[in-house]
Amino acid sequence: MPSERVRVIDLETAGGGPHDVCEIGWQDVARGRDGRWRVDDQRGALLVNPGRAISADTMAVHHIRDVDVAGAPFWKQIAPSVLRPEGGVVALAAHRAGFEMRYCTPSLTGGARWICTWKCALRLWPDLPRFSNQMLRYQRMPEGLIHELGLPAHRAMPDAYVTAHHLRDMLNEAPLDQLLLWSGEPGLLPRVPSGQDRGKGWDQVSEVALHALAKDRDIDIRFSADTELRRRGELRVAEPASPIQTRLL
């Protein structure tokens, strides 16, 4: 096993309950002897019995049926073997990691640190128009990504595989500690996502509008507006970070 690796995690669920994971997928990204990070051959997926019926809405997304998971282990039985692999990891990662962190609790991960590739993409590639996992895939066309291994979308291993290619490129652009720092803060949105200033860069927004946006219900909007106000010399107390992200961009 590599001495330094990050394990990318992706979960599929039965419909939004607190303990309803029905599939976990993973893909490792490891640092080579040359110091460069690479996507390695440690990947896989396991079905999980969610202990409840899978909703039709979620079956229509991932196509995992009740019959498929009837004989599978429950979440707490299987999660530690994936989240705490032999040899350890320097961090876990996911795209919009707040979702996975709801289920991959510290007691299951051993207190592992998390990288959110969505938040890091906002920082490293702010000129891109959209930042979903699959949009990044086709906007960036990461080198070495085998198209068929990244399919079908909305299944745990293929999605983790795609995310791992974004993470590899991020780790080769910025230090691990920097990605962890960004991941611990709200998302720094490159543009205003809604309202009369939608699509504008924050430096194009009036001071009055910035102060209003700094009171928005969305923590990422508040953080982004605050960051611009601080850049202009108007310091505010930053809102505490939240692991849960609700806005898609």
Automatic annotation (TrEMBL):
Coiled coil: none annotated. GO terms for molecular function: exonuclease activity; nucleic acid binding. GO terms for biological process: DNA metabolic process. Residues 5-176 form the Exonuclease domain. Gene3D superfamilies: Ribonuclease H-like superfamily/Ribonuclease H. This is DNA polymerase III subunit epsilon.
